[in-house]
Structure formats: structure tokens, C-alpha cells
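One thing: can you check what follows?
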Amino acid sequence: MADLRQILSQGRKRIGILIGAGAPTAIRVDDHNRIVPDGKPLIPDVAGLTDAVLAALAAEDRRLVDVLKNEIPGNVNIEAILTQVRRLAQAIGTSLVHGLDGGGYDDLGRRICEEIGTQVCSRLPEEPNPYSQLVSWIAGTQREHSVEIFTPNYDLLIEEAFERARIAYFDGFTGSHLPFFDPASVSLDEFPARWSRLWKLHGSLGWRVLGDTVVRTGQREATELIYPDHLKYDQVTRLPYSALFERLRQFLTTPDTLLLCTGFSFLDSHICAVLDESLAANSHTAVFAFQYRRIDDEQSAIKLARSRPNLSVYARDAAVISGVTGRWQPTYSANEDKENIRQTFWRAPAADRPAEFLLGDFASLAQFLAVTQAQQVSSAVPEPRPDEEDVAEPRDTADNSDA
């Protein structure tokens, strides 16, 4: 972590950040959108989004969805429900299934998507928050390469944070009245390094099809481009998705790059496929996945990390580093700088809780990034002695026992 902090503060390495759906849940707000410790998530995760959308539907729509839920295998969430609705809309035509024909299911899907747009259109709180800390870190260092942010989220939180801080960024659109998506600009590196890059992998609120062009309206309405169902994977082969996913692949296959993942569950098969292919092709790329839950609850991330040693998974209680799983066993030293750094990523044990690694929480990671410019912590960290290193001690994977 001391080495990572030093790398992040220097501005020489090519750095990217993958922000998943878990990131906005780190911000808790009251009914007036003010940050409070015990508030509701600014934007719910997938489980919370499912409950909120279904609760907002009309009674007849909820009745039909309850019937469809019983026909869906595995984990039933809003994406699985909408996938089932879309499949029926495409397949049955004028035939009736549970009282609706294809057109009826198409209308149901549209109503579900409109409610999804309502749930994810929250505005960024005015107070300092993890998104504002993130852009503060981005702007606080003179960089040789632009910071690139990749996100499957539909919200406009990161855009608001950039614009409030008056920090320049490019998201693939150009123009003034109705900015249009320009795939040629996405593939080029011709912008100044101080311009961050923002790539919305699954589309965004405010995107709309106008003729044969995708435009950004500046509004917060949901459109067909952001439907979180199986169609997003079908459409990913078309612009703008093909250009955006190709940009992710291009970033990961560039030598000497570092990608930080936060709030990402590794359940999105298409993004994980790009990660897997790119890490296999380029051993000089490193991915640090900061996971919110305990290691046993991060099986999707662990599976990829065990096959790709340049992907490291950092969970609350353990980590997978270079393909080896181990529990955190931190030691302590008299080095004041090192102890100051440790406090930014590690919480000491207390009577009511065990010690834990903190950076799986997006709020803690954003703060960790923001304080990399702090003067009270030396930017030149002494080389640690072997007995002082923060390591995840290996454990025998055959019997799953702790070292």
C-alpha cells in the first residue's frame, strides 16, 4: 500500500479506474440529499434497485412480474426480470403469455426502464463526498497520461463531480447543441493529459438515438440505450458500445498500466471477458480489485485472480495476490510515516469488530487517493525490512487452512 500510494502521487504511470454499481452506495443521504451516516444509499445496488423498481410499478405490472419471477432460474434481480420481459416481447408476437402479447411485454419493459431511470437519476450531494475527493486527486497531480475512468453505471455522479470542480474531461461526444458520439476520438490519445477520459460502458442517462447517431441530451431521462438487460450485450457490438469496450481493451493492453477497481462485483460477463483476455495478453498491466465484502463472498473476482496473477483482489479479511490466497497478518513498526500510511487503509481491531482492510469501501478508497498529496506523510517511503512488510500470508489451498 505504501508503494501504491507513492505510484499514485507521482503522476507518471498510466492509471485507470473501473467504478462499479457498488460505489454510489458508499454515500448515505437523508430525504434532502444531505450526507448522513445512517441515511439511505444515494443510489441503491442491484438488490435495492430491484426492490425499489418493483415497489413503484402498478399493481397489475407487479402481479405479472411475480409470475415471471417464478420462471427465472438462479438469482432473480431487476436485470434478470427485464431480460425475461424482453425475450417474451421478441419471441411471442401476437400470442398471449400470462395475458400479454409481444407488444404488451414491450410496454412493460419500457415502464420498468423508466422506473430504473427514476431510481438512478440522483444528484451528487453538495457536501464533500467520495466523488469530489476522487476528482480532487485526479486534478492534484501533474500527469504524463490522462486518468481514464470506466464505468457501467448509468448515473451522472462523476460528471457532476468533474464539472463542479471545473476539471476538463472527455466522454466520446463532441458538439454543442446536441453533442454526438464520435468513435474516432475515443480511439485516439490526442487530448492534453490534464483532460480525464470518462467511458460509460453501458450507456448513460441522457443518451438518445437521433437518426443514425447517438447524442447526449444533458437530461436525465432513460432511453433504450441504458436498459440493463441482455440487449446491452447484443448491442455492445455496435457503436458506441464497440468503441468503448475497445477502449477498455486498448487501455489494458498498453504496457505499464494500472487499473483500480472499486464497487465492481465481477458479475458482468462482458467486462470480465475483456479483463481476462487483456490480462492474458499483457503481463505488464496490473489490476487492483478493491472488494467490499469478505474474501469468501468474492468468488467471481477470486476465480479470475487465480488464473491471472496480474489481477490482485483485496478484500476485508484477506487477499489474492499473484494467484495466492492469504489472510491479512499485518505487523507494526516504529516508523511513523509507515503507521500514518497504514491508518489510511487499515482499521485496527476493537472489542466489537475484527481488524480489516478498508479500501473495498469506495469512500475509503477515494479518501486514500485524496491524501496521497498530503504533506504530513512522506512521499519517500523507506524500504521496509522483511519483517515489517504488509503481506497476505499464503495458505495451503489444498486444505484451505490459514498460514
